[in-house]
Amino acid sequence: MQQFETFGECLKRVLKEEKLSASEAARLVGFRSRNSMFRILSGETGYELKQRFVQSLQQALGNAWPQERWTQLQEALIKEHLGPQRYESHLAFRRMLYGLERDEAPYLVHLEGPEGQALTRPLRDVLCEVVRSERVEIVVTGCYDSALMALLAEMCGEAGAQGRLVLRQYIDAAEETISQHILGILPLVAKPWYNARLVNPGDCPAEMLAIYRASTIHLNRWDVQGRQHASTFLLYDKRDFILINQCMRNNLFIHVIDKWRFQLELLKPMTATTDGGPETFVEYTRQYGQLEEDCVILSIKPDVHFNCIPPSVLEPAIIEGFEQSGMAAGEELEALMGVLWNIHEGRFNNMLEKRKPTHLVYSLPMMERFMRTGVQSDQFFIQRAYTVEERRACIRVLLDAMRTHPYFNIHFLKEDMPAPRYEISYYEGKGVMLMDAYTNYALDDDHSQALIILPAFMEAFKRYFMEELLENHVLSRCETIRALEHLLVMNVQE
């Protein structure tokens, strides 16, 4: 198949493979003239007509064609409508949110053995040996596969936490690919031993840009005697690396790579402190309040947002949780809650009353889970579960806001869409926050969280949210209100 197949080309191929003539397809959808069909095949019609055609053909054929065929047609239609670059950007967000098309095959390293024989080793085994060294420096260019980043995060974590390892990565910040690149490195961005550096194509000579875009892993390690061992691995296929350089001295590749430096400091958690105490929680909440204040918000997560919980519901759940955990009590807790109440009340009122559009996308099964358990997907780790009446109060707030606030919108994903793995929130003019959707906010742990302020990335997510999510994958407003009414009267037990 071609890298970019038009909708007409895809339709011709599907009709041929399913042994259905163009004339028969035209008859099935009710076209009175064969010319309408041939205009679709030649690409002379608009997106809406092609979309209606696919829907009519699917209604006519039903299960006579496998689901794979309809997916192929829909994807070809979307790709043609958006263009290849915007389509790839949307696809990157989709893969990250839902974990689609994950390749579980291992990464392999091809190298020469001590007697000149060809050897193949798992990259995992190579890294396992490297991270045992006294000191390790890893430099990565051109690799943006989230599975590879997850492997690096897993294998390097212990050495990084012990201060024996640092990993830096050079990120190609070309506007057309920045979404795929940023989303690919998410497993690493919150690690304190990881540092990402942006390479802006407009500021970098073409010869250097080619080096930054080469998919390589450079390993420098020092043994207990202080001797250095350097090696460079080139990714030449999807899962295959080849050893292209090995020496007992400084790695010249790294010296060349470091000639231009671009610091990307905001690929880090919002809160740098690691004490995990109650003050950290308050400061964390304050920073979010500043981020949300008086701006357009577009967000997707499994279930209800923390800032949509009424203060009167949140207060007892937090107080009892702090008291039961022993983290705070008495006057200390009273003072803490006074500050937290003011911050949260401001966040709550801003979310519901600001005159800027707010669109929140949830998974209905995950909201039903919230109603059954009283626990959010990102429940604060010492907060007690909400009572049945508190859960219903949360739903009433969302339902009332949908009915009375013209700028506030709740959306539920259609039932064929899985619950998101990540929470992504867009704050107009301020950034896009990406984080694990199922964290418990144990603030002394690392978080897979990053605030991205790159304008191209912010615009890419806004387009994905408006063009794909809201256009194709959420229930209608009436269906959403009915779903909220269903949640409100669910038969749940304490």
Task: Give an overview in words.
There is one protein chain. The chain is α/β, with parallel strands linked by helices and 494 residues long. 46% of the residues lie in helices and 17% in strands. It contains 18 helices and 14 strands. Strand 1 and strand 2 (118-122) form a beta hairpin. Helix 1 runs antiparallel to helix 5 and helix 5 crosses helix 6 (84-98).
Brief digest:
The chain is an alpha/beta fold and 494 residues long. 46% of the residues lie in helices and 17% in strands.
Defining traits:
alpha/beta; eight-stranded mixed β-sheet; six-stranded mixed β-sheet
Helix content: 40-55%
Please count the beta strands (DSSP E, at least 2 residues each): 14
Distinct helical segment count: 18
What is the rounded distance between the termini? 55 Å
Q: Strands of the largest sheet, in order across it?
A: 2-1-8-7-6-3-4-5
Shape: flat
Residues in β-strands, percent: 15-25%
pLDDT < 50 runs, ≥5 residues: 261-274
The value of Rg in angstroms is 26 Å
Give the biggest sheet: 8 strands, mixed
The helix/strand class is alpha/beta
Mean pLDDT: 86
